[in-house]
Amino acid sequence: MQMIGFAVQLSFVFLAVSKAEAGTERRAAIIISSITDDDFDNDIELRKREVPEPEAQIQTTTLLFNLSKNADDVRFLLYNKRNLGVSQELRYNDTESFKKSSFNPQEKTVFLIHGFWTNSSSPMPTTLKKAFLEASVPFNLIVVDWGLLSKPEPPKVLYAPVAYSMVVKRSIPIVYNRIADFIRFMRASNYTSLKKLKIIGHSLGAHVAGGVGRTVASFPESKGRKLARVTGLDPAGPLFQKLPVGQKITKDDAEFVDIYHTAAGTLGISAFTDGHVNFIPNGGHHQPGCVDPTNPVLGEAEFGSCSHNFVTKIYAASITRSFLACECDPELAIKNECPVNCNVTVLAGEPCPASTRGQYYFETT
Ligand SMILES: *[C@@H]1O[C@H](CO)[C@@H](O)[C@H](O)[C@H]1NC(C)=O
Ligand SMILES: *[C@@H]1O[C@H](CO)[C@@H](O)[C@H](O)[C@H]1NC(C)=O
Ligand SMILES: *[C@@H]1O[C@H](CO)[C@@H](O)[C@H](O)[C@H]1NC(C)=O
Ligand SMILES: *[C@@H]1O[C@H](CO)[C@@H](O)[C@H](O)[C@H]1NC(C)=O
Ligand SMILES: *[C@@H]1O[C@H](CO)[C@@H](O)[C@H](O)[C@H]1NC(C)=O
């Protein structure tokens, strides 16, 4: 059954989150394999699920946690050079919150979307925020905080596998619909336009970003036009590997979709074809200074979490310095065997031109 495959993958998400104790991997697999689609209609029962301990079958552990399903818990925190260091909260359908803030409708607006089990204080938003504020071009940077829908309360690692599937199936649509509605409100208030919008998401946040793009394009006032750019930073793999277009980030989601792969096949999605352009830094699987995922002991336990987070550093660096990438067959790229004499080069990351197509390789330290 398909769920068993999910179970194995999710147990690794669990491990990556927890650096876990012995036995937790099996327990995670048992938890996930016991979830059915019907469970998602019965939130309370899912959260109260009793889980047999693998070691001592007599005992059970009752999961009981809160994961918000309230769209109002999705928060929008504005940063720009004018309010440097101190966020200003922008509120959906509240023009006063915009007028009181340092938001500038003339400037482009960039949304940053974090992933699973994190919030706006996590490395992805903080690293990218710092880089954007150092950039010469002014932006309205909006950090989306969906922490209450991404991390259960209490945040015990034992809940991570169940929480991951709940976040994928339930939270992600709530979050991308709210961000899309927020953009709809911004456009109606003349605070932005499709051409001025860019969404950057990491891991599950990349799939949220794709959903925002699709939803905004589906609004009647968009008349089929899409927002300018969606950037996927190592889009999450578990539960997404086999999903079709429309249920994960793809090139259909914006005028330009650029995707960066750093932990393909572990925590990251393994196809190198979902974006208009797919970047394969350092071979796309295993980043410098991180454990090799094929290592039978350390690699399994770590399951790519270091490489998965490395993408944030690469993208942040691209805002202030140049990475020249070389068009290359992914078969060669994954082996770090792209020809040195490269016929087609582009700038990777933030300055990547929207006309770029294909698959590109570059190296970093
Ligand atoms: C869940 O949230 C409700 C309302 O805030 C609270 O009463 C309850 O104790 C919480 N449950 C857990 C397990 O934290
Ligand atoms: C936000 O404003 C729109 C347009 O006025 C309205 O249709 C929608 O119901 C409002 N949503 C909320 C949650 O207030
Ligand atoms: C993010 O989560 C951390 C750890 O749970 C917490 O200390 C911090 O206050 C949270 N940040 C926000 C903005 O909620
Ligand atoms: C937005 O701009 C359009 C065109 O200039 C104008 O017709 C409309 O009234 C403006 N809307 C708001 C809410 O200011
Ligand atoms: C670069 O272009 C030349 C001439 O068109 C071609 O012979 C060569 O194979 C190309 N190299 C690569 C790496 O694609």
From TrEMBL:
One Pfam entry name: Lipase
Record GO terms (molecular function): lipase activity; serine hydrolase activity
Cellular localisation: Secreted
GO biological process: lipid catabolic process
Domain of life according to the entry: Eukaryota
Gene3D superfamilies: alpha/beta hydrolase (3.40.50.1820)
GO cellular component: extracellular space
InterPro entries found in the cross-reference section: AB_hydrolase_fold (IPR029058), Lipase (IPR013818), TAG_lipase (IPR000734)
Signal peptide residues on this chain, from the entry's feature table: 1-22
Domain Lipase: 58-335
Keyword terms of this UniProt record: Secreted, Signal
Family as reported in the entry's similarity comment: Belongs to the AB hydrolase superfamily. Lipase family.
UniProt name for this protein: Lipase member H
Organism per entry: Orchesella cincta (Springtail)
